[in-house]
Each structure stands twice: as structure tokens, then as C-alpha cells.
Fold this sequence. Notes:
The complex is a heterodimer of chains A (112) and B (112).
Chain A: E1 4-7, E2 10-14, E3 19-25, E4 31-37, E5 43-49, E6 55-58, E7 61-66, E8 71-76, E9 85-92, E10 101-102, E11 106-111
Parallel strand pairs in A: 2-11
Antiparallel strand pairs in A: 1-3, 3-8, 4-5, 4-9, 6-7, 7-8, 9-10, 9-11
Chain B: E1 3-7, E2 10-13, E3 19-26, E4 32-38, E5 44-52, E6 55-58, E7 64-70, E8 73-78, E9 87-94, E10 102-103, E11 107-111
Parallel strand pairs in B: 2-11
Antiparallel strand pairs in B: 1-3, 3-8, 4-5, 4-9, 5-6, 7-8, 9-10, 9-11
Amino acid sequence: ELKVEQNPLFLSMQEGKNYTIYCNYSTTSDRLYWYRQDPGKSLESLFVLLSNGAVKQEGRLMASLDTKARLSTLHITAAVHDLSATYFCAVDTWNTGNQFYFGTGTSLTVIP
Amino acid sequence: SQTIHQWPATLVQPVGSPLSLECTVEGTSNPNLYWYRQAAGRGLQLLFYSVGIGQISSEVPQNLSASRPQDRQFILSSKKLLLSDSGFYLCAWSLGQAETQYFGPGTRLLVL
């Protein structure tokens, strides 16, 4: 069974600081997705990473993918309160049909 | 542009009662459709997915069922709800395999 692990599960950081969320997965995949979920809300697509070495950036968030290491990172630069949310990574593979396998989520709180 | 709707937004049901949640997608044809459940403070669990009318794949054994009577309609049902069925139910669509999944607003179900 494909496993997707995120760490940390909970992250409290001060405004203006930098931090990285890690997403490890257990089988070969060339595609990784990052989502954001605000409390009580649905999931919003942030990034799609479709090849080894892919890097995407939007605002203070940057995501990267290393398929050889089976690792994706979501880097937060100069955090602001609006980034407080839960972040999920998800992986799908050719041999598992249409399934996304979601990570456990990282709950981020940015404090003043 | 594509939009995805879910209703109801919130539902409180007694144990043993039936359930019907509806999801519809606008602005696209022949989407892949998905039902997920998210327990409080937890990650997402894929329940069902469908690649076409009448085609349903189930990922976990349970007392829930799904149907796709029309191209852009996906229904989640139960004949008798259990306490453990409480959670946040999310419907999602994608253009196909290896495509980003876009999530609906969700239905919050509380079984008492």
C-alpha cells in the first residue's frame, strides 16, 4: 500500500520566519499535488508537480519535487498570518488507477 | 469555467436513518468523480471514484454506497447510518487520471 507521510504534523511559527514542510511517499510516482485547507472549509489546489526537479512558486510558498528521493517540500518564506491553514500533499501512481493518496496534513499556525 | 456543488452543506441525522448526499459538476463533460471522507482533525480517506456513468469503484468496505446516474452527478448513500459515519464528506472531480482534483465545498454530517 502506498504511504504518504508529512512532517511536521503541527507547526507553529512566528511571522517573518521561514520553514519547510516535508512530504515523503513510499512508491514511485512522478506527480505530486499540494493542497490547502482552511478550518471548516474544503481543499484548495496550490501546486501540481509533474516531473523530477519540478519547482513551483506562488507568493511566499514554493514547492519542489525529488522523485528519486520520493520527497516533496513546501517552503514558506517570511510567513504571514494568512498562511495559517492545514497543508496536504497527495500522490497518485499509474498502477493505482485514479487514486490520490493524501498525506496526514500539516497544521500550520503563524503567530504575530 | 467549471464549478462543483454539494448539498446539503450540513446534516444532522439519527443513527439508523438513511443518507443521500449529492454532488454535481458544471462546465465539463465526462469528469472523473470522487467521494472522500475526512474525520475531525484527520486526513482524507477515498471512499469511491467513478470514471463514467454507472461505473463505481469502492476503496473501503463500509455501509456506504455510491451511484452516478448522470455524467456530472455523483450520489453517496447509506441505508442505515452509524455513529462512525460522522465526518466531512468531500466530492471532487478531475479531467482524468494524473490530473488535479478539484474539491467541492463539502457536507458536514453528524450522526447522533
